[in-house]
Input
Amino acid sequence: MRHLTNKNYLVFCWFFITCIFQSQLIHAELTITYLAAENSKDARREYNNKLLELALMKTLKSHGSYQLLPSKPMNLKRAVAQIENNTIDNFFVKLSANKRDLAKLGYVNFPVDLGIVGYRVFFVSPKQLASFKQITALIDLKNLSIVQGLGWLDTKILRLNGFNVVEGTSYEGLFNMVSKSRVDLFPRGVNEIFFEHQNRIENKQLLPNTSIILYYPLPRFFFTHKNNTAAIQRVQKGLEIAYQDGSLQALWYHHYHQSLDLVDWQNTKIFRIENPFIKGIDPSYKQYIYTPSLQEKQPTANDKS
Output
């Protein structure tokens, strides 16, 4: 009888240890790498990184601990190559949604910026500032030169809509090109203009002009390699939880309200063009899109954690 008891005891211990081991595997610490800023003035990715952290925090109890680490600084084109080659584990990068990347890469089906980046405000060259204020039709914009970054989907969207687009390889160089009148316009997401101007306020020639906005639908998702299914599912769930409890909108407003408040939405001219690269994609993301003229000025949050 004693021998049987010891045997049962050993079986119980083995079962208990196995359960603990399996539990640790299920909730093993997840490491996600985010795209680091290109330089000290690059504030574009602060919100993205905070949003990833929020999604991971919202799933801490259900999915376990995590690490959120920066990549080496790189431009967007190189970052996409890193994802395609799967050279960085769980590397998440915000990209404009398009059919090619949606088919080739893994992604979180949620518009990171709530779609607000589709409202494009212009940094205008000193040479064109006076004439820019007199623009009354879309064709007037198409007669001016626009600079965009290498590998940006915006370049293709604008060119297909008849705009004259010049590409630059350096993010900081794009601002220099427009301030030195080497190009006429540098369009930026309306959510980006405040900090981009503040970080270069010593450049007196670099001023955003909010009298005209160019709009095209531009949902941006977190993309990663297709094999990172567990990380994708966790971030997706975390974003949905954060949106439902309002903490996502609170984070969004905290980062972007100063830019949005620069625009007089009732009196700004808005020219609209098509984005052919999102035709036919899953439209479920549209439930999260923010429309400035229809929404309250400040989203509320039940949970600001």
User: Anything to note?
Assistant: Residues 117-215 form a domain with the D-Maltodextrin-Binding Protein; domain 2 fold (CATH 3.40.190.10). The radius of gyration is 23 Å. The chain has twelve helices and eleven strands.
